[in-house]
Amino acid sequence: GGRKAPKDEQSRMDEVVDALCTTLRENVPAQWQQLRAVEIIFEELAAEFDGEDPLPPLVRGALDGAKQELDELVEKVGRRVGTFDLPEPDEAALAKLRTIARLPEPR
User: Fold this and answer.
1) What phi-psi label fits residue 87: left (phi over 0), alpha (psi between -120 and 50 degrees) or beta?
2) Would you state the pLDDT for residue 61?
3) What's the rounded Cα separation, in Å, for the pair 107 and 103?
4) Closest CA to 37 of 74, 87, 107
5) How many other C-beta atoms are found inside a 10 Å radius of the C-beta of residue 48?
6) What pLDDT, on the 0 to 100 scale, is given for residue 4?
7) Helical pair 7-48 and 57-81, crossing angle rounded to 10 deg
8) Apex 40 CA angle, 75 and 46, nearest 5
9) CA 44 from centre of chain
């Protein structure tokens, strides 16, 4: 059988896990917003190119992989600390990315 951690060691491990979960709870929504902003801008770029994905397959795979990993993290951490509020990006963030991508503002 496996060695069980002494009670004070287990308590310390629980504190570390709780601190990590708190940090994730504070940072994941901002990461989600940034990822969604990039995703939205690439969708708008695709619309400019008759629906063709403007990303090379390697970059598309990286973006999709990052979103999947973030989804999995949200699910796993959510089991311990409750559901996350994952807001969509605000218009200021989207406008900044549209300027960088030289996209027109939506009508």
Assistant:
1) beta
2) 96
3) 12
4) 87
5) 13
6) 60
7) 140
8) 130
9) 19
